[in-house]
Write a structure and sequence with these properties.
Number of strands: 2
Number of helices: 4
Strand content: 5-15%
Largest sheet: 2 strands, antiparallel
Helix content: 55-70%
Shape: elongated
Order of helices and strands: HHHEEH
Strand order of the largest sheet: 1-2
Radius of gyration: 22 Å
Length: 111
């Protein structure tokens, strides 16, 4: 996963260099516009790819290692819908917004 983020940063740097290069060397507005579009694509597409793969693999949290530790220690649990880490007391998922059932410990206390 880190490789995708490194590629995303490299794409952003390459897009920035492309943008500077186009604006210094372009002879007309259409050349500047096409160069800016290419620079934007170089900067944005790797980021979108990295975010998509991160979402598909279940790594939705930016601090995934800490959230996994919280889930393992019993302070948090996984949403049954999106697998995002949520509090044991949560009644709705903060990631997907869907309602979730209370944790088993809370069900015993309620009923």
């Amino acid at each position: 996963m880190r490789l995708l983020w490194v590629l995303s940063l490299a794409g952003a740097a390459l897009g920035g260099l492309q943008l500077v290069s186009v604006f210094t060397e372009a002879k007309s507005a259409p050349q500047q516009a096409s160069g800016a579009a290419i620079a934007l694509a170089l900067a944005v597409l790797p980021y979108c790819l990295a975010r998509s793969i991160q979402g598909l693999t279940g790594g939705m949290d930016s601090d995934g290692a800490l959230d996994r530790a919280a889930a393992d220690s019993g302070r948090a649990r996984r949403c049954p819908h999106c697998r995002g880490v949520i509090s044991q007391k949560a009644s709705a998922c903060r990631h997907c917004g869907r309602d979730v059932q209370p944790a088993p410990e809370q069900q015993d206390a309620i009923g």
